[in-house]
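Entry 12.
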Amino acid sequence: MNEVKSKAPLWVKVVSVFAVIFGVMTLISGGSVLFIDSARRGAGAYVPFVTWFNFIAGLVYIIAGAGIWKLQKWSGQLSIFLAVSTLLVFIAFGIHIIYGGSYEMRTVAAMTLRFSVWAAISYFVCGLIGCGRKPTAT
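Predicted 3D structure (tokens):
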């Protein structure tokens, strides 16, 4: 019912595959820092709440990618959620830095990339399938 019935353009398939691959890579990178001692030592001054968020978000990226493939309206809404939640964690990370918390510049770059990717995906996917509520009749 929440599915767009038209055939998806090629770019939608590319975006959905990208989202799934991005999710798998995020799960691997975050999971290795969280669960493998040698990776954790190599990560330097990682910020645990950012790493946990990214690890969990990696699974959600995969779910969103699958929904985008099938042109599910909820996948656009989930993409917006991913962009907004990433921005909120990025802001919290910024506050952590302002108050003197240790961090790695690669985390700043990674969070910039993650937010930019999901903002762009949500913009284009919502433009195709629509993500908001239907207008109410007046």
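Annotation: DSSP finds five helices and no strands in the chain. The two ends are 24 Å apart (CA to CA).
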